[in-house]
Amino acid sequence: MALKILEGCINCDMCEPECPNTAISMGEKVYEINPDLCTECVGFYDNPTCISVCPIDVIITDPDRVEDKDTLYQKFQKLVHEDKI
């Protein structure tokens, strides 16, 4: 699954610099996660770093973007390959 930031986000700026895929950016009101770039840190870390640094626990798995670990790893490999081009 990709991750999602809920509207309760306080824009503390903790999550954005932690994302190895640069999937997090400022939206209209709160930070947002681009589901096409989010691998839940698969390929980089054991757990999503944005969730671990969020002080108010507003980052959840997105129920609309269900992806298993293999799919997330394939996305990671594609993103890493595109980065090298």
TrEMBL record:
Cofactor(s) listed: [4Fe-4S] cluster
Pfam families assigned: Fer4_7
Tagged with keyword Iron-sulfur: yes
Residue ranges annotated for the 4Fe-4S ferredoxin-type domain, each copy included: 1-29, 31-64
InterPro entries named in the record: 4Fe4S_Fe-S-bd, 4Fe4S_Fe_S_CS, PSI_iron-sulfur_center, YfhL-like
Presence of the UniProt keyword Nuclease in the record: no
Top-level taxon of origin: Bacteria
PROSITE patterns: 4FE4S_FER_1, 4FE4S_FER_2
Gene3D superfamilies cross-referenced by the UniProt entry: 3.30.70.20
Any GO MF annotation of the entry: metal ion binding
Swiss-Prot/TrEMBL keywords: 4Fe-4S, Electron transport, Iron, Iron-sulfur, Metal-binding, Transport
Coiled coil segments of this chain: none
GO cellular component: cytoplasm
NCBIfam families in alphabetical order: di_4Fe-4S_YfhL
PANTHER family found in the cross-reference section: PHOTOSYSTEM I IRON-SULFUR CENTER, PHOTOSYSTEM I IRON-SULFUR CENTER-RELATED
Protein name listed in UniProt: YfhL family 4Fe-4S dicluster ferredoxin
Annotated organism of origin: Thiomicrorhabdus sediminis
